[in-house]
Design a protein that fits this description.
Glutaconate Coenzyme A-transferase; homodimer; five-stranded mixed β-sheet; 2 domains; AcetylCoA_hyd_C (chains A, B); transferase (chains A, B); 26 strands; seven-stranded parallel β-sheet
Chain lengths: ~500, ~500
């Protein structure tokens, strides 16, 4: 490692003597502590200290409460879980090993709306953050920390913690400096409006301002971010994108939107990414994004000349896209900003700007309630993430899913979802490869009709119609046959298929 | 009726010739129209035109879409339902006859977050309002309309409609003039921050500014508002209030709140009213309210010297309290403001001010999901109202309910709610007469433990523990036994009791 290089990245001379090994820095973290780490959708997470911490936890009793922005890369959640170091974890995760521990009840997982974690901390509704561990491009002369490919909750963790460990990552380009806009709300009741009035607005500082004496240790690394594991578009995701493009064309035709639509948000993952990429071949222009994670599709849209500006809280790319974008970052930088997730996901800003929110459903029911998180209503997949922040406050809340899973043995549209993340009030559009159901201003019985007619794969359509008929005979605003509401899930559990004749 | 009196209430001379009968005014409303009427929790609703409309609908084909602020008084919903005049109804209702028609699927009811109705209209997500019918104290010289005991959606209905009918109500005191603060957001993407920074702030105008030529008819009435049907406190509501007072004393002790707490919101109805009245005998002082409906308890708190200021969207009182308050309104007026429900319930303001939200649950489940609306998951009671606007964005979201209903044959805490209005993410505290479960920063399995230990009536506690044991054997982050999740509701349907030995 080039000593010159990392010293240039510590602008505050006092702090240069705080450089130490990851193992030494990790010693600052003690059993029972609450630790706030940088990292949002694998981007900008700390790499060295958590690995050293996991190493230590294999030798001595050490259990922490771990808070992050969202998901981590570099197998951090796996390493900490396997070392038995996680007592509690929030607000989001995607790791299979951690997921299994959560579902066994071994790690207490608090799945949160991503805009709310630091609000809960600031209000004292949970134990305070003892120590923050933040990845940085560099530290400025003032001691201010320049984050890397995500902001997430890093700024508030650093502000609220007693001590801060900084990981300076030489693999993160200095070109990232200037990308961030750090704005932190005051404690209530002194809170003021967020002055942000457009996706491209800048209202904060370029770095995280904290007293330099709080920086207790600095660790140097050159380990790159984990890349995203997004799948390529397929016929079904292309069909979903096509339905949405046609829907928006109609909205423009009706005079409700212009060709630049309104600022777009897209959830994490393959489907939302494919939908956004589908806009490359669309009549829309001068688009903007006000989202949380900027994925490959954001840069596809830039390259297609469709997108004017993108605001997010992190940048998470596939290996190829990552090489392209960070290899020529100057080409994009002026059209990008990364914000704290409290701002990127803030109800106030989302409602003000009028976001078009596109998120992914695990399953939806005939009335439009959405399950984003719990397989069979019980087993956590990842977490609600920011979908609730956006869906509740959006101009238009869209949920996309393929109509079936498991080679058709599971329908993504069911009589009743066994776990509700988004109630029918927060779901305007459901779209599958089959078609699009426009649920705006419809009553529940009408919503059921629209969803069944447009979104459901053939073998399940008749089954749902039969359910609705029986339910309506019993009556009610939202008719159900409670003792049969979960029969499909129960059948899948017993036979491996929701279909009636497969057992 | 005194001709002098009503003419004094029409400041714009041009408009005096628009005074007509209710029947004549109602002729402006035609079959198929969308009509926006004033009225929020029975307060400030129009009385004459809807009755004339119902009368007409008995003689000729006439079906409308009716939008209001919230519930209406004066049997308007019953009269219109019985006359077959309601095709569609939103966003809230409480009438037994309308409720039955909704549950038979005869009236299409769109149950909405109360902050969102005019947002949906403004965005063009539903058919526009053809005509607004608004109760007024008076019309100013400019043609601006001074609303009465509620603002609700009146201002936006009047602004968005092609024509406006005004009902001037001589039974509403002119002392109400000056009470209102009308602030309307701009259409997106030109939307600006709501400049409101405290419950007592004033940011708008005193009346609803519209071009006077839009006022197509004026009807005069002297029919008073319907009063509230709130029940008196009983031992159980007093116990609920007691648990909450002790909880807040502990929060003050812990340094998280001061004796003036944070602005309070209380939902509609007996339990929330009783909880607020319970604060009259508390150590708290200089309280403020930022709520939607101001009920008897608001004025009890004023009279007890506990409350400094109350912001709402309507005032709905019992007959006795109404006589006292409106008989001496000057005593309270400077400490009150009524706002559009879009502002009183706005996520932006609720999150900024840090509201303590106290709402009523129909039932809650062991993980803290709340059903506020659907009896047995199917039959609409009233509607979600503003509870979601507040619960999602509150500093602290509290749901109160008695632990049982129907003489103990129904438990208000169940394994799984068959309809979710508020997900576990939006529920911090559940309180019954049994006790209070503090769910902050708890994982689902911990939430279940806290709720069962604190909130559940004796016979149901063991039943829930048995359910949890069986569910945990199956595993999962949020353990359930899907085929038994609604067994209690099913048993009640069959036997009239959720208890196991009653059949």
């Amino acid at each position: 490692m080039n000593i010159e290089t990392y010293q240039e990245r510590i602008g505050c001379p006092l702090l240069r003597e705080r450089v130490t090994s990851a193992a030494q820095a990790a010693e600052l973290i003690r059993d029972g502590m609450t630790v706030g780490m940088s990292g949002f959708t694998r981007a900008g997470d700390v790499k060295m200290v958590p690995a050293a911490l996991a190493e230590r936890a294999r030798r001595e009793p050490l259990k922490i409460t771990l808070l992050t922005g969202a998901s981590l890369g570099n197998d951090t959640d796996r390493l900490l879980t396997e070392a038995g170091a996680l007592a509690r974890r929030m607000p989001f995760q995607v790791d299979p090993v951690l997921r299994a521990a959560i579902n066994r009840g071994e790690v207490m997982y608090i799945d949160q709306h991503l805009s709310e974690t630091v609000e809960v901390l600031r209000a004292g509704h949970m134990k305070p953050v003892d120590i923050a561990v933040i990845e940085a491009v560099c530290i400025l002369e003032s001691g201010a920390i320049v984050p890397t490919t995500s902001v997430g909750n890093s700024a508030s963790f650093a502000i609220l913690a007693d001590k801060v460990i900084v990981e300076i990552n030489l693999a993160q380009s200095r070109a990232l400096e200037g990308l961030h806009d750090i704005w932190i709300p005051k404690k209530r009741p002194m809170r003021e409006p967020i002055p942000l009035m457009s996706a491209e607005g800048r209202v904060g500082t370029l770095a995280i301002d904290i007293p330099p004496e709080k920086i207790a240790a600095i660790v140097i690394t050159d380990q790159p971010d984990s890349t995203s594991a997004i799948l390529p578009s397929d016929a079904e995701t292309a069909a979903i994108a096509g339905h949405l493009v046609r829907f928006f064309e109609n909205e423009i035709e009706a005079g409700r939107l212009t060709r630049s639509l309104l600022p777009l948000q897209a959830g994490i993952g393959t489907i939302a990414n494919a939908v956004m990429a589908g806009f490359c071949d669309s009549p829309f222009e001068h688009l903007t994004m006000y989202s949380e994670v900027l994925q490959d599709s954001t840069f596809d849209l830039f390259d297609a000349g469709k997108l004017d500006f993108a605001s997010g809280s992190s940048i998470t790319l596939s290996p190829q896209k990552s090489a392209q974008v960070f290899g020529d970052f100057g080409r994009y930088k002026e059209r990008l900003v990364l914000r704290p997730q409290e701002v990127s996901n803030h109800p106030e800003v989302i409602r003000r700007l009028g976001i078009i929110a596109i998120n992914t459903a695990l399953e939806a029911d005939i009335y439009g309630n959405v399950n984003s998180t719990h397989v069979a209503g019980t087993h956590m997949m990842n977490g609600i993430g920011g979908s609730g922040d956006f869906a509740r406050n959006a101009y238009l809340s869209i949920f996309a899913t393929k109509s079936t899973a498991k080679d058709g043995r599971v329908s993504s549209i069911v009589p009743m979802v066994p776990h509700v993340d988004h109630t029918e009030h927060d779901v305007d559009i459901i779209v599958t490869e089959q078609g699009l159901a426009d649920l705006r201003a419809l009553a529940p019985r009408e919503r059921a009709e629209a969803i069944i007619a447009n979104c459901v794969a053939a073998p399940y359509q008749d089954m749902l119609r039969a359910y609705v008929r029986e339910a309506q005979e019993r009556g009610g605003h939202t008719p159900h046959v409670l003792e049969k509401a979960f029969a499909w899930h129960e059948r899948y559990r017993r036979t491996g298929s929701m279909l009636e004749n497969e057992s």
